[in-house]
Amino acid sequence: MLFALKIQVSVPADVPQAQKDDLRRRENDRAIELMAQGKLRRIFRVVGEVANISLWEAETLEELHANVGSLPLYPYMQVHVTPLIEHPVTAAWKDQKGELPPF
Questions:
Q1: What is the pLDDT of residues 41-77, one digit of tens each?
Q2: Of the N and C termini of the chain, which has fewer Cβ atoms inside 10 Å?
Q3: Residue 34 falls within a domain, yes or no?
Q4: How is residue 71 annotated by DSSP?
Q5: Helix, coil or strand: residue 3
Q6: How many domains does one find in the chain?
Q7: Residue 73's CATH number
Q8: What rounded mean pLDDT belongs to the chain?
Q9: Is the Cβ–Cβ distance between 20 and 11 less than 8 Å?
Q10: What is the arithmetic mean of pLDDT over 86-90?
Q11: What's the whole-model pTM score?
C-alpha cells in the first residue's frame, strides 16, 4: 500500500544544539536505511515550513507506524497520513506506453 505523509517537525528551542545535530544525523541515517529497504520511496521539503511530504510503502498500517516511529525525530513530529491508490490516468499511461517515466 502506498501512503503520502505530511510530517511537521518541531524540536523544542531548549534542546541543546549538539543534541539537535545528533538527532538530524541519526534521522538522515535511518531515512536512508528505510529508502534502501523500499519503505520510504520519496521525500520532498515543504518550502517555508519545517516539514516534508513523503511517499511510503507498507503492507499494513502497523508496518507504516513502526517505520515512521523508528525515526529519531518521531517524538517531535506531527504526522498526517493519506492512503493512496492508483489514478485512472496512471493505468491508462501504462496501457498505452508501458512503465511510467522516472521522477
A1: 999 999 999 999 999 999 999 999 999 999 999 999 9
A2: C
A3: yes
A4: S
A5: strand
A6: 1
A7: 3.30.70.1060
A8: 97
A9: yes
A10: 94
A11: 0.88
Q: Cell digits for 79?
A: 504526522
Domain containing 64: what range?
A: 2-97
In whole angstroms, what is the distance from residue 44 CA to residue 67 CA? 18
Cell of 17: 544544539
- Of 71, 68, 73, the C-alpha closest to 30 is 71
Which residue type does 7 have? Answer: I
78-98: average pLDDT: 95
Instruction: Tell whether 103 is covered by a domain.
Output: no
- 39: Cβ–Cβ under 8 A, 6 or more apart, which residues? 56, 57, 58, 67
The answer to whether residue 21 is domain-embedded is: yes
Q: Which three cell numbers stand for residue 39?
A: 519503505
Residue in the structure block whose three cell numbers are 511510503: 56
At 52, list the grid cell.
Answer: 516534508
Supply the pLDDT for residue 29: 98
Phi, psi dihedral angles at 11 (to 5 degrees): -85, 130
